[in-house]
């Protein structure tokens, strides 16, 4: 039993069974295997499971008792025959509320195993209180996957009942997942009380508990499962772990689509409160899907064209004031605080939609996909600028500068608001980088640039550099206020994009300009190393970049590569290469848009497949434009999953993996 925890037998109406008080030594019928079930039970479960679909056809609606939801899918499936005979009552609906099927029960030996492994252990009340406070202060504003009012109603009822009990409605799986996400921000005193040697070790404790409960299907509520695995996606294990953030986000998306969260319930008999919760949960799936795809260099799982669920709005975050009267004063205040900061998530959600458009349009790996057109870049840039120009008032720079509240909640909210602006600068880099480096851009024809192309590429590079510098300046401001520890997990992904531009700027600069560029690189690395104390992904990224930054100059000295700036990085880029563009807005050079559009019109007449001409192809189907041994930026930081497939022990040595495991 862990220090600061107590073993509990938590069970609730959505659980399969309460954990046993003792471990059985054998089954009641030795001739039966653990997989055998009485035929009568099989028949009863079968009838219970098919009853829900009969309710759909018979137009029956569940009463006031227990209910569950069924999503029957698109019209090419079961709904087709009713569509063909024009039975609009069924053909027009895909979501239904029906009586629940019989709950499956775990075998006693399974429950005993879970108890022996500590899956039912839960922290002491004071530590739970700290973690819950941290969750709603740090995690919930950027991932509002649960309803705060409902949570506190269940949690405080549990406290009034004297602790966890079989009648509790609070999901143990969800609670352990919340603790996993919140433990990144635990205080030194809280960490000491937990008995864990490090934040990473504490996160692993909660992750393993949650994973056991998930693997044994202890939680039956499918909406709760989506919420829980989204939070489990904040765990990033070792490089060779079978499951990681990518896995859990995929599970959440698959479950959400199976429940129909991506579709508009329309005329279905789904209550408004449930619809609002579904919209929020699905929005969180979209948000995490885009950021994980960006950080890992993998495709977005959610296809926007497959979704017609209405956009989440401020109304979906509002709580009926009458419900707050049932909560304690502290809980009611927390619920109101969550509602007040909801515009931050809505802005970031809009940003991730643009991110998804950019990834799908500009970073598709297949050579069969035609290169982006002028219209593609114009559309993406227009979307980005329109979003940024119309930020919610509380997220605008002038409003943040006036946000000087002394409370910790106010300071964390400031970090989240600044994160909106950092995201804008990263999206700018994401959109303009292909014009300079990417194989599909008009400048990527085996590295050959004519004079006009060089001007356009230089303008795009200036935009990337200005945004990387502006993002670094924001991070510097947060560091000066000692707020780096409040940065969200997605900050590690942000630094991947920013560091690549900053390093190339340092690589291609000289003299005082190089010194200034080095300062920005060092600052970004310093912040990354600070984040690695709690975010495992930051450790991998830091190790990769540290090794890469050392390796490239060494190989250049040995003559195996040449650190040669591209042709456009000469006089044409001198205006933006100084360091800076460090202003908060990251403005484009005055004639940048005209240069880029003019040259794209010239080069994108008919370029399908032309980027592959005379360009070597690696085993990831990525085309790398370079001449001879000249070092190409796309070779240093390819926009693919190369980084995540790379064995870090090859560049850091065997001791890296051994040292890394000491915290676990």
- The pLDDT mean sits at 75
Strand content: under 5%
Radius of gyration: 27 Å
Number of strands: 4
- Portion in helices: 40-55%
Q: Structural class, please?
A: mainly alpha
Number of helices: 27
How many independent structural domains? 2
What's the arrangement of strands in the largest beta sheet?
1-4
Architecture overview:
- Residues 1-14 have a biased composition (Polar residues).
- Keywords: Nucleus.
- Residues 1-43, 572-592 are annotated as: Disordered.
- InterPro entries: Fungal_Detox/Toxin_TFs, XnlR_reg_dom.
- Residues 245-317 form the Xylanolytic transcriptional activator regulatory domain.
- The structure is a single chain.
- The chain is mainly alpha-helical and 664 residues long.
- The chain has two domains: 5-17 and 105-335, no CATH class; 374-663, no CATH class.
- It has 27 helices and four strands.
- It has helices at 39-57, 80-84, 88-91, 108-116, 125-139, 148-160, 172-182, 188-194, 199-215, 222-232, 245-258, 272-296, 321-324, 329-340, 342-362, 374-389, 397-401, 408-436, 451-480, 490-507, 511-531, 536-558, 592-603, 633-636, 642-645, 648-652, 654-660, and strands at 5-7, 68-71, 95-98, 121-123.
- The strands form two sheets. The chain has a two-stranded antiparallel sheet.
- The longest helix is centred in the C-terminal third of the chain and has 30 residues, at 451-480.
- It is globular, with a radius of gyration of 27 Å.
């Amino acid at each position: 039993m862990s220090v600061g925890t107590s073993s509990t037998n938590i069970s609730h109406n959505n659980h399969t069974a309460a954990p046993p008080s003792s471990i059985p030594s054998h089954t009641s019928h030795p001739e039966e295997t653990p997989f055998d079930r009485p035929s009568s039970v099989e028949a009863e479960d079968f009838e219970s499971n098919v009853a829900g679909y009969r309710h759909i056809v018979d137009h029956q609606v569940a009463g006031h008792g227990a209910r569950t939801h069924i999503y029957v899918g698109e019209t090419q499936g079961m709904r087709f025959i009713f569509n063909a005979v024009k039975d609009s009552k069924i053909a027009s609906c895909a979501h239904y509320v029906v009586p629940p099927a019989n709950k499956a029960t775990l075998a006693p030996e399974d429950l005993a195993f879970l108890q022996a492994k500590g899956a039912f252990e839960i922290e002491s009340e004071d530590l739970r209180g700290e973690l819950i406070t941290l969750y709603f202060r740090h995690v919930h504003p950027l991932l509002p996957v649960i309803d705060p009012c409902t949570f506190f109603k269940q949690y405080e009822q549990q406290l009034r009942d004297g602790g966890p009990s079989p009648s509790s409605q609070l999901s143990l799986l969800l609670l352990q997942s919340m603790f996993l996400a919140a433990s990144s921000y635990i205080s030194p005193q809280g960490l000491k009380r937990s008995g864990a040697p490090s934040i990473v070790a504490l996160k692993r404790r909660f992750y393993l508990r949650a994973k056991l409960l998930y693997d044994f299907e202890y939680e039956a509520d499918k909406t709760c499962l989506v919420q829980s695995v989204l939070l489990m996606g904040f765990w990033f294990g070792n490089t060779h772990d079978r499951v990681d953030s990518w896995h859990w986000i995929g599970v959440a998306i698959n479950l959400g689509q199976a429940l129909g969260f991506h579709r508009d319930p329309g005329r279905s008999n789904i209550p408004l409160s449930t619809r609002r919760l579904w919209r929020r949960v699905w929005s969180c799936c979209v948000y995490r899907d885009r950021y994980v795809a960006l950080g890992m260099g993998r495709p977005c799982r959610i296809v926007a064209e497959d979704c017609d669920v209405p956009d989440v709005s401020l109304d979906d975050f509002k709580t009926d004031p009458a419900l707050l009267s049932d909560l304690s004063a502290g809980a009611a205040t927390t619920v109101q605080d969550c509602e007040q900061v909801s515009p931050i998530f809505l802005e970031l959600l809009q940003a991730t939609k643009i991110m998804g458009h950019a990834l799908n349009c500009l970073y598709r790996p297949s050579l069969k996909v035609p290169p982006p057109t002028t219209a593609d870049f114009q559309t993406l840039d227009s979307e980005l600028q329109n979003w940024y120009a119309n930020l919610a008032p509380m997220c605008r720079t002038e409003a943040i500068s006036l946000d000087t509240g002394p409370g910790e909640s106010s300071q964390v909210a400031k970090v989240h608001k600044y994160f909106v602006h950092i995201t804008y600068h990263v999206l700018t880099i994401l959109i303009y980088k292909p014009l300079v480096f990417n194989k599909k851009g008009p400048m990527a024809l085996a590295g050959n640039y004519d004079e006009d192309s060089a001007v356009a590429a230089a303008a795009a590079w200036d935009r990337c550099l200005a945004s990387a510098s502006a993002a670094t300046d924001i991070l510097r401001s947060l560091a000066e206020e000692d707020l780096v520890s409040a940065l969200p997990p997605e900050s590690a992904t942000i630094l991947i994009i920013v560091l690549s531009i900053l390093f190339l700027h340092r690589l291609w600069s000289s003299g005082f300009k190089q010194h200034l560029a080095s300062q920005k690189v060092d600052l970004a690395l310093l912040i990354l190393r600070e984040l690695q104390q709690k975010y495992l992904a930051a450790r991998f990224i830091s190790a990769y970049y540290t090794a890469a930054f050392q390796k490239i100059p060494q190989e250049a000295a040995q003559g195996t590569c040449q650190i040669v700036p591209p042709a456009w990085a000469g006089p044409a880029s001198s205006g933006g290469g100084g360091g800076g563009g460090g202003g908060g807005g990251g403005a484009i050079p005055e004639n940048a848009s005209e240069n880029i559009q003019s040259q794209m019109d010239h080069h994108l007449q008919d370029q399908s497949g032309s980027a592959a001409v005379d360009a070597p192809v690696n085993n990831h189907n990525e085309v790398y434009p370079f001449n001879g041994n000249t070092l190409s930026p796309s070779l240093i930081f390819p926009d693919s999953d190369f980084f995540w497939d790379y064995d870090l022990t090859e560049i850091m040595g065997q001791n890296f993996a051994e040292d890394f495991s000491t915290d676990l």
